[in-house]
Amino acid sequence: MEYPKVKLNQIGLKRYFSNHLWFRPQEIYQFEKVKENISPGSLVNIFSEDGFFLGCGYFNPKSYYSLKILSKEKTLIDEKFFLNKFSNALKLRKKLYSKEKCFRLIFSEGDFLPGLIVDIYNKVIVLQIQTLGIEKLKNFIIKALKILFAPSAIILKNDSIIRKEEELELYVEIIYGKTEEIILVEMDEIKFLIPVIKGQKTGFFLDQRENRRFIKALIKSDVILDVFSYTGGFAFYALKGGAKKAYLLDRSEFALDLAKEIAKLNGWKDKIIPILGDAFQILKNPPKADVIIIDPPAFIKSKKDLKDGIKKYQSLYFLGMKALKKEGLLFAFSCSHFLKNKTLKKFIENNLKNLNKEGRFIFHGSQAPDHPINPFVEETFYLKGIGIYIK
After folding, report:
1. Residue 324: pLDDT over 90
2. CATH 3.20.20.510, domain 79-183, yes or no
3. What pLDDT sits at residue 306?
4. Mutual orientation of helices 209-218 and 233-241 as an angle, nearest 10°?
5. Rounded to whole angstroms, how far apart are CA atoms 23 and 11?
6. How far apart are CA 117 and CA 138, in angstroms?
7. Cα(261)–Cα(278) distance, rounded to whole angstroms?
8. Could you tell me the pTM of the whole model?
9. Quick one: which of 264, 252, 262, 139 has its CA closest to 198?
10. Which SS3 state, helix, strand or coil, does residue 385 take?
11. Angle of CA points 287, 290, 294, to nearest 5°
């Protein structure tokens, strides 16, 4: 397909050969001229200055990264293209999770499709589209998903603030089929209610699957404090593993009400204690627990948030460790790729010194493998966690 041409300059070419998928205006040859001639969100063919073909992608001069690659082959970006991409992604997921009915099918750059998230919840598919280029291709995407999965419903969960960077409206829409606003699924023999319309992200945090499984296997007859619990993912896995009781701390009344319903479904109505409030305040005078799990939202969403975000993480992990009994376990997570593993580890080490406590690292966690990490796009490695045994 002869899409409009965009050329990379020498700086951009160097980035291309480092296997990155995004390019800034200063990496595009004669950017201002390109900007005048190609409308935002258009598909383009990408070349070097001397005319060597490099790939296909989409162009949006309004975005910080104005050019993103979809394929390094000369191809038509259509329904067939996405069907092939989704089929390959599904093949990997079947190797990773052969029996799972809930999983992430597409993880943007981790699956070489920048700007697209696709989560599968049984027969309901939830999409997150983050860029104008993908927004313009959504009809191809939806057709391909219908062919591959024959879903009962497809939802566009396009309410992420990241869309504003590309001047896209925020909306949630059932684009195909019918579904309830809250659907029932089962994961690891636990019944969950997923708020696919009003919930955070696509309704559930599938990326914490393996970390929840670790905690489930570890916890026996303990009292749990699940901080930033949302609908109780960690708490319910702990209860499945044999926990005595679980406190669920969150500032969302909607999420905690849903957690109560999930507890009833699983026969744990009397084993959960929801706490509505601010984590930073409640951790100053917390309920007594043997295990504290802290899984906050991303405090560092961009570089401008770095200074304030680091302070929040430092304060939160300090409060969590201080709140722990003399002997117990603390699990500290971060879903911001700007907070590096070594920095998270340093926070924990400093807290041990400041509180005059002894601890041993017993766990290092990351995102589940259906959220694959692209080794050349560091932003795809975002979730990290540390478990420390304190005595």
Report:
1. no
2. no
3. 86
4. 30
5. 10
6. 12
7. 22
8. 0.95
9. 252
10. strand
11. 75
DSSP per-residue codes, 166-219: GTPPPEEEEEEE---SEEEEEETTEEEEEETTTSSTTSS-GGGHHHHHHHHHH-
C-alpha R_g of the chain: 22
Q: Write the CB contacts of 152 (distance below 8 Å, at least 6 apart in sequence).
A: 123, 124, 177, 178, 179
- 148-152, 231-235, 288-292, 320-324: which has the minimum mean pLDDT? 320-324
Give residue for tokens 């589209």: 129
CA dist., res. 349 & res. 351, Å (int): 5
Calculate helix-pair angle for 253-265, 233-241, nearest 10 degrees: 30
CATH fold, domain 205-390, is Rossmann fold (3.40.50)
Domain range annotation of the chain = 5-71, 79-183, 205-390
Distance from chain centroid for Cα 314? 22
Contact between residue 138 and residue 128 where contact means Cβ atoms under 8 Å apart: no
pLDDT band, very low/low/confident/very high, at 238 (cuts 50, 70, 90): very high
- The whole-angstrom separation of Cα 49 and Cα 10 is 8
On the CB side of 387, CA atoms within 13 Å amount to 15
State the CB neighbour count (10 A cutoff) for residue 239.
Answer: 23
The rounded distance, in Å, linking the Cα atoms of 329 and 259 is 23
Sheet of strand 272-276, all strands in order from the earlier edge strand to the far edge: 272-276, 245-250, 223-227, 291-294, 328-334, 384-390, 359-366
C-alpha–C-alpha distance, residues 278 and 267, integer Å: 28
Q: Please, what's the b/e burial string for 318-345 (b: 16 or more CB within 10 A of its CB; e: otherwise)?
A: bbbbebbeeebbbbbbbbbbbbeeeebb
The CATH homologous superfamily to which domain 5-71 belongs is PUA domain (2.30.130.10)
Tell me, what DSSP letter sits at residue 383? -
Window from 80-89, 94-103, 166-175, 304-313 with minimum mean pLDDT = 304-313
Share of the chain above pLDDT 90, in %: 88
